[in-house]
Every structure is written in C-alpha cells, then in structure tokens.
Design brief:
356 residues, Rossmann fold, binds uridine-diphosphate-N-acetylglucosamine, globular, 45% helix, single chain, 6-stranded parallel sheet, 7-stranded parallel sheet
Length: 356
C-alpha cells in the first residue's frame, strides 16, 4: 500500500510526524512525503523537520506565498502531476491550511482516496479562510479522523456517512507527549519567573493595523506586571514593520523571531499565561494545564474551553486585561485533558488506514 502525505505550513509538521512513524512500523507500507512549500523560511519549516526527527520531503512543490487563489491553484496544478506520477493508494492531508484543501481537491478529481487528519472542527465563522478549507476538505475526504467528539457531531449534522468518521484523538498531542522531555531541556536559564507568551498571526488580528496597534498597547500594559515574550510570525512581522510598530521591542515586551518547536514548547510549559490566536496552541495549553486567552470571537476547538484552560477574549483589550488579572489572582480553571489526547492517536489512524 502506497500512502502519500501532504504538508505545507508550520502547524502541519507536528501532525504528520507521528502518523509517518506509526505507519513506518507496519509492513507492506510505502510512504511518500510531499511538502507544498507554503511555508518556506528555515525557521517556519526546516527546523521543525530536524527537531521532530522527520525524513526530508520526497517532493517539494515550492509554491511559496501568494493570494489564496494563487497559492491554492499553484499547489493543485503542481500536486496533480505528483499524484499522476506516484499513483498513491491513499493521500493523507492535515489540518485546515490552503495545502490541505488544494490536495484534497486534486485527489477527489483523480479518484484517489483521501484521509483527513483533524476532521470535523468548525468555528462556524466563514470569514476565516481555514473554515472554508475545513468544510471543503471534509466534504471530499473518504476517511475523517476527528480529534474530539464535537468533530463527529459536526460531521454527522452535515450528513457525512458515519462509517467514514473515526474519533482517534489528537495527533498534535502525540508529538507534544513524545517531545516534552526534550523540550524541558530547552528551558532557557534566564527565563523570568512570571511571563506571558504571545502569538498572533490571523488576518483578523494582524491585518487591521488599528487593532494591531491597540493590541500592542495592551501587551505593553501587561508588560508592566510581567515580561511579555512574543515570537513574531512573518506575516505579523511585515504588518508591524509597515505600521512602524516594531519599535516597541524592549525588555518587558520582547519581539522575537519565530521559535523552533522545542523552544516554543519549553516556553509554554513555564508560561504564567499564553495569549494567542492559534488553533494548535489552544490545544497544547489545554494539555499542559496552562491558562490560555484566545484573541478571537470563536474557536473551532470548543473542547479547549469546555474541558481545558482556554477562554475566548475576543478583540477586547478590557477582556484581555481582565483575563490576565484573573490568572494572576489564581482565579482560573485547572482543566482536564480531553478524551483520547493520550499520545496514541497516530497508531489508531495507522490501523484504520491499513485496513481501509
Ligand atoms: C497559514 C495558515 C494558517 C496557519 C498558519 C500557521 C492558510 C489559509 N493559513 O497562515 O491556518 O495557522 O499558516 O503559521 O493556509 N511568510 C514568510 N515565510 C514563510 C511563510 C509565510 O515570510 O515561510 C509570509 C509571507 O509573506 C506570506 C505570509 O507570511 O504572504 C502569510 O503566509 P501564508 O502561508 O499565506 O499564511 P499564514 O498566515 O502563515
């Protein structure tokens, strides 16, 4: 059986790693790894392959950046040739990025079976490009692997055949569990006692420069009480430079380059509070039991709120400040680890793919 995996953007890499490993232990399985090149900076891509111990991609489509239509179309036209040449029995796609939906569309037209890892998540907010990617990918996929039972419920509500849906748990947490001992060795010696760890990259937060400016002001205020460490995504870096906001960098609010996987995980384990608009970080903080303020009005990962340590604070400086004050006052839920976030999701996926 020939299985071809498609990844493209930073959050895909920690999801494919455990699935590659789980399938590698099974006999009679050939694997091909395709990188679309959606993320291409060394600190957004190569360093993740190194730290996660992944093989180099067999194919790199080198599509790079562009508008959504350009990027998706380029991936499709280049990926189609790879599928025609390599003739996989199954293509596995991950998460909700443009590479995910582009690959799924190509396979559907070529009648190659698709498995979607991290299926069924819904924010019910179609202004998010990722929501469109999720809906379309799930419509096309033959096997839908959900990380939490809300995913199953969403898919059933949308009329997906129940036989295709498999609740397997969270592959991102497989990687976190495997890498945690190594991450603990990466904790910097000079780390402040208390600090907020920040990431922001969603268009809704960083493309609106008025809001971005007010967000930085809020982070500066938080910096009066504790250090604020902010590894800056390239998209955010560009916006900050455009608005000349990158000058706020200082001792209390530290703008940093994007961090490698282990270094970022290390900082999460010790953070007083995490402030983010990422999807995966809502999950990682829930697993680690670290308070998380999500700077969005909705989330496709509601289990991080119902079971975990996540709270939506929206685009509201007052709610962000109040959240930080609650954390500092010790007024935060302890949370619990959601069902099947146990380090074995990829093994369940491998077993299902093998028998499909
Ligand atoms: C993408 C995903 C998003 C995911 C995020 C994680 C989509 C629609 N969005 O958003 O879901 O949370 O990745 O990081 O797929 N850039 C660089 N170097 C890189 C990559 C990007 O400089 O290696 C810059 C480019 O100017 C580019 C911009 O960042 O235009 C945005 O990159 P893009 O891949 O379009 O989307 P992300 O915002 O990274």
């Amino acid at each position: 059986m020939h299985i071809l995996h498609v990844v493209g953007a930073r959050p895909n890499f920690m999801k494919v790693a455990p699935v590659l490993r789980a399938l590698a232990t099974r006999s009679g399985i050939q694997q091909t790894l395709v990188h679309t090149g959606q993320h291409y900076d060394a600190n957004m891509s190569d360093v993740f392959f190194e730290q996660l111990g992944m093989p180099a991609p067999d194919v790199n489509l080198e599509v790079g950046s562009g508008s959504h239509a350009q990027q998706t179309a380029q991936i499709m036209s280049k990926f189609e040739l790879v599928v025609l040449e390599r003739k996989p029995d199954f293509v596995v796609v991950y998460g909700d990025v443009n590479s995910t939906v582009a690959a799924a569309l190509v396979c559907a037209k070529l009648m190659v079976r698709v498995a979607h890892v991290e299926a069924g998540l819904r924010s019910y907010d179609r202004t998010m490009p990722e929501e469109i990617n999720r809906i379309v990918t799930d419509r096309l996929a033959d096997l839908l692997f959900t990380p939490s039972t809300d995913g199953d419920e969403n898919l059933i509500r949308e009329g997906v055949d129940q036989g295709r849906i498999h609740f397997v748990g969270n592959v991102m947490i497989d990687t976190l569990i495997r890498m945690l001992p190594a991450a603990r060795k990466c904790i910097p010696a000079e780390l402040p006692e208390r600090y907020a760890l920040v990431t922001l990259h969603r268009p809704a937060n960083v493309d609106d420069l008025d809001w971005l400016s007010s967000m930085l002001q809020t982070l500066g205020d938080i910096g009066e009480g504790m250090a604020v460490l902010f590894p800056v995504h390239p998209r955010t870096r560009q916006r900050l430079a455009e608005a000349k906001l990158d000058r706020v960098n200082g001792d209390r609010l530290r703008l940093m380059e994007p961090l490698p996987y282990l270094d970022f995980l290390a900082l999460q384990t010790r953070a007083t509070v995490v402030i983010t608009d990422s999807g995966g970080i809502q999950e990682e903080t829930t697993f680690l039991g670290v308070p998380c303020l999500t700077v969005r009005e909705n989330t496709e990962r509601p289990v991080t709120i119902s079971a975990g340590t996540n709270v939506l604070v929206g685009r509201s400086p007052a709610r962000i400040r109040a959240g930080v004050a609650d954390v500092l006052a010790g007024n935060w839920v302890k949370g619990r680890v959601p069902e099947l976030w146990d380090g074995h999701a990829a093994e369940r996926i491998a077993a299902i793919i093998e028998r499909s």
